[in-house]
Amino acid sequence: MAKLDPEGRRGDPLADRSKDFDLIEADLIEEVEALYDGKDPAHDFTHALRVFRTATAIAEAEGADPTIVALAALLHDAASGPKDRSRGEAEERVLEIVEPLLKSWGYPDEVVEGVLYAVEVHSYSKGIDPATPEARVLQDADRLDALGAIGIARVFMTGGSLGRPLYHPEDPFCRGREPDDGEWNLDHFFSKLLKLEEGMKTEAGERLARRRGAFLRRYLSELEEEISKGI
């Protein structure tokens, strides 16, 4: 299973599934991947894989159940449809799919309940403080995927797919206005991403969020130089 070194770098390549999925049978992974068909590119199966790898690395340090964490991470966005589906509808759809799926795979009730709870409370928009180690791990891992280099890529990929302009022409960095990420792509940094560091629930999550958050701020500083000066 993929591990994080002290600086948060992953050691295993994406293609090496034999190490990644030692807790879950290979044929089940294929079923999970199919559930992400039609997802927007920022929340597709590769997102689930990244969350899975980060979550399983954090779980050991937190004493969280590795099977619950692995399943919750892989399934947390499954079958929720495209980005323009309403958030509540998407989350309800995931829960409707996950419970019978886990039962059909033969997982015991305590695992099913643990996965369902972690998936249900992971969303940033709900603002729920998770009550179990597994849910804390999933929430941190999902939020970490919105930070750093991959977070920047996901922001602009999502905004581009929705046809949002890159930034507000008069106030790109929200210095004199409230951010509106439904209108301007860059505003998402200020409405959400730069707030994620302070909400981490695990020590490993806090450490990784500080490093990735620092990268976001460096990026925004460089971007401001290019926008304002053009050199």
UniProtKB/TrEMBL annotation:
Domain HD per the UniProt entry, residue ranges: 44-147
Chain ranges passing through the membrane: none
Xref: Pfam families: HD
SUPFAM superfamilies reported in the protein's UniProt record: HD-domain/PDEase-like
Protein name per UniProt: HD domain-containing protein
Superkingdom in the source lineage: Archaea
InterPro entries hit by this protein: HD/PDEase_dom (IPR003607), HD_domain (IPR006674)
